[in-house]
């Protein structure tokens, strides 16, 4: 979803400014502005409005395409668990649930790992090692998602089925509250595998943005902390992270946006079953995977409309997630303000 | 939506035709079933070398093929699911079968050799309904006395995308199990009561190969090419038959084509002692009085050639050619119905 990336990237870029000494914005337009500047203003503005119009256009056309489904099923479309092309009854609860859960697992894996990578590269690693690891992380981002999917299915899923899932079954399965999450036949394909693959896929996006912002911390701040006798850990915890906190959250949501909309890799390892199961080892479905799987053969109007409506739901879900991200940023900014 | 897609495709095709320039040969366009894509491209390639006409076929899925021909953006559509005569008549369309294949149950069981497992339709339906959960269920053991079946859960693998393969599979299950018919029904995609979904034949094949103790269903050509562990199915005459060219042809022979209007017939559960019960075919759908008569005539010429002379190519790609009697019936139909 390009929309997500652009939005969050903008958020990230904006946040970098909040901590750093900001450039005062000068009024661009005005009677005395030279024509060159005016043209420049127009060009940049039209580029920005183009995105806005595109976004609106996508949202409206999906809502319009899905109107038949929304009219027919109402709220049942969100809460219903049926996805029955024969009976022409469609409810998106299972794909929505699968999208959110697999993305949540992905974030559980990606955030700590990315944080580790970024801190290592910015603070700990010797200078000669930063380049190679940095490039390796960025190369990870360039691997097409279908490759992740195929690797997941042919290499990773068998490992999950043979070693990881039986272990989870034996050791976590009997636990009282967490237990049901880890019971079920170890087939290697399902929510957990999809979440882990998604996590690996999002690491480069989060890590490279985090590294950039960590490196943007003014050297004077860090050097003063070191001069006061702080250890590297203390510098990271008390200087780097507070200084960049809003950008770190922004980076995380950039990754989350990618996880929510990822299609190909998820399709390969999620199992694509419209069944609800508490267990993370069981197959599920995600919004993007369902659309990719079923669009070509959607043979009735209501089926097609339901799939487009599903796209609209993903749009709304992503929007809600991003709105939450903004709220969080505002709150963090306010906290930082009161402390400072 | 489909309309827009259709128009887009048309303009792309037009652009393509313009690029092709001054070629005098006809450019025949078609869209639909992914199942026939390999054989149609082979046929088109050979036909092109022979007389210069080109067939441009887009394998966008049967549902898409039907939508495209109804929007008249292509010269023929191809669907694994036949259209009922009323629907054809309403749109001014005709249809005829092209080539035979079969949908085959495949298993992944330690120590079981290809072609040794036996199933009946009702047992397959119960497995796919999730009613038979274990490989050592008495219903399966009883059919396979010589095979040591593990006490393990069955992982059911089905298609995650809508497909003609699924349509033929569930059409068969609906015919042999009233329970299946009532609870799930038939269509190109259904609400599966159990299992995991793989995308495309290759996706199902990959899942079955990956997951021990699984069962799936794939097109015959994939079974052969991936050396999968296929099983025999009991047909309506009570005989266990293995999927192969002979049993598919037997089903096509005994299926009641003579009395089917517009070849509206799904061959599953065909009568006859040698008929494989989940035999399938792909249908070409064309306008009876097309807008572009010249291109449509070129398409008919191509299909006549393919049905007449294309058996060798079909065999090389693990398809099965239509039996001669059926070919004759199709040729009569084309002459009489499609201008």
Secondary-structure element series of chain A: HHHHEEHHHHHHHHH
- Count of runs of 4 or more consecutive helical residues of chain B: 14
- What would you call the shape of chain A? globular
The CATH top-level class label of chain A: Mainly Alpha
* Biggest interface, CB < 8 A: A-B, 35 and 36 residues
Whole-Å distance between the termini of chain B? 30 Å
Low-pLDDT parts of chain B are 4-23
Major beta sheet summary of chain A: 2 strands, antiparallel
Give the radius of gyration of chain A.
Answer: 23 Å
Name of the CATH architecture of chain A: Orthogonal Bundle
CATH-assigned fold name of chain A: MetI-like fold
Share in β-strands of chain B: 15-25%
Residues in helix, % of chain A: over 70%
Describe the protein in words.
The complex is a heterodimer of chains A (340) and B (339). By secondary structure, chain A is an all-alpha fold. Chain A has a single domain, classed as Orthogonal Bundle (MetI-like fold). Helix content of chain A is 74%, strand content 1%. Chain A has 13 helices and two strands. In chain A, strands 1-2 form a two-stranded antiparallel sheet. In chain A, a hairpin with a 4-residue loop joins β1 (83-84) and β2 (89-90). The radius of gyration of chain A is 23 Å and the shape is globular. Residues 1-22 of chain A have low confidence and may be disordered. Chain B is α/β, with parallel strands linked by helices. Chain B has helices at 2-20, 37-51, 62-70, 85-91, 121-129, 138-143, 164-176, 178-183, 200-210, 220-225, 245-254, 293-309, 311-316, 324-337; strands spanning 27-32, 54-58, 76-79, 93-108, 118-119, 155-159, 196-198, 214-219, 232-234, 240-241, 279-287. The chains are: A mainly alpha (340), B alpha/beta (339). The interface between A and B is large, with 35 and 36 residues.
């Amino acid at each position: 979803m390009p929309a997500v990336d652009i939005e969050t990237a903008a958020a990230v870029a904006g946040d970098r400014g909040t901590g750093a000494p900001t450039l005062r914005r000068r009024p661009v337009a005005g009677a005395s502005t030279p024509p060159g500047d005016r043209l420049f203003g127009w060009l940049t503005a039209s580029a920005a409005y183009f995105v806005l119009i595109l976004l609106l256009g996508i949202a409206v056309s999906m809502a319009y395409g899905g109107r038949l489904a929304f009219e027919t099923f109402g709220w049942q479309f969100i809460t219903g668990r049926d996805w029955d092309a024969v009976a022409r009854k469609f409810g998106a609860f299972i794909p929505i649930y699968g999208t959110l859960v697999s993305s949540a697992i992905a974030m559980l894996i990606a955030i700590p790992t990315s944080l580790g990578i970024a801190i290592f590269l910015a603070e700990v690693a010797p200078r000669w090692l930063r380049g190679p690891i940095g490039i390796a992380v960025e190369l990870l981002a360039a691997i097409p998602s279908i490759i992740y999917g195929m690797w997941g299915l042919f290499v990773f899923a068998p490992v999950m089925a043979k070693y990881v899932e039986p272990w989870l079954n034996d050791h976590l399965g009997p636990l009282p509250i967490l237990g049901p999450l880890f019971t079920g036949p170890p087939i290697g394909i399902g929510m957990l595998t999809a979440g882990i693959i998604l996590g690996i896929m999002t690491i480069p996006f989060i890590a490279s943005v985090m590294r950039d912002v960590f490196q943007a911390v003014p050297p004077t701040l860090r050097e003063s902390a070191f001069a006061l006798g702080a250890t590297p850990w203390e510098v990271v915890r008390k200087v780097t992270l507070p200084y960049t906190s809003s950008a770190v959250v922004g980076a995380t949501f950039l990754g989350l946006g990618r996880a929510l909309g990822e299609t190909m890799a998820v399709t390969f390892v999620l199992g694509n079953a419209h069944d609800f199961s508490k267990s993370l080892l069981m197959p599920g479905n995600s919004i993007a995977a369902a659309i990719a799987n079923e669009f070509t053969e959607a043979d009735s109007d209501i089926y097609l409309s339901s799939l487009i409506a599903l796209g609209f739901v993903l749009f709304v879900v992503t929007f809600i997630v991003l709105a939450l991200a903004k709220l969080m940023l505002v709150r963090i900014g306010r906290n930082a303000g009161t402390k400072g | 939506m489909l309309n827009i897609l259709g128009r887009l495709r048309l303009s792309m095709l037009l652009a393509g035709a313009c690029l092709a320039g001054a070629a005098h040969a006809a450019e025949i366009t078609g869209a639909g079933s992914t199942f026939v894509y390999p054989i149609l491209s082979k046929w088109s390639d050979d036909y092109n070398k022979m007389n210069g006409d080109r067939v441009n076929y887009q394998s966008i899925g049967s549902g898409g093929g039907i939508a495209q021909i109804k929007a008249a953006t292509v010269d023929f559509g191809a669907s694994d699911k036949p259209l009922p005569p009323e629907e054809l008549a309403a749109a001014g369309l005709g249809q005829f079968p092209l080539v035979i294949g079969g949908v085959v149950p495949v298993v992944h069981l330690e120590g079981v050799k290809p072609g040794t497992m036996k199933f009946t339709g009702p047992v397959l339906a119960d497995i796919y309904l999730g009613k038979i959960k274990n490989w050592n269920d008495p219903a399966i053991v009883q059919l396979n006395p010589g095979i040591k079946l593990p006490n393990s859960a069955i992982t059911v693998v089905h298609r995650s995308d809508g497909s003609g393969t699924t349509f033929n599979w569930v059409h068969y299950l609906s015919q042999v199990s009233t329970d299946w018919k009532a609870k799930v029904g038939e269509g190109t995609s259904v609400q599966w009561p159990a299992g995991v979904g793989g995308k495309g034949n290759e996706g199902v094949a990959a899942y079955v190969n990956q997951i021990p103790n699984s069962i799936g269903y794939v097109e015959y050509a994939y079974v052969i090419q991936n050396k999968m562990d296929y099983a025999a199915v009991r047909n309506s005459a009570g005989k266990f038959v293995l999927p192969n060219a002979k049993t598919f042809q037997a089903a096509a022979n005994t299926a009641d084509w003579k009395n089917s209007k517009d070849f509206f017939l799904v061959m599953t559960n065909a009568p006859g002692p040698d008929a494989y019960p989940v035999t399938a075919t792909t249908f070409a759908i064309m306008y009876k009085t097309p807008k572009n008569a010249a291109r449509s005539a070129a398409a008919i010429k191509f299909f006549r050639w393919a049905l007449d002379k294309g058996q060798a190519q079909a065999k090389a790609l693990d398809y099965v050619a239509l039996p001669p009697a059926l070919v004759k019936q199709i040729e009569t139909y084309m002459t009489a119905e499609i201008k």
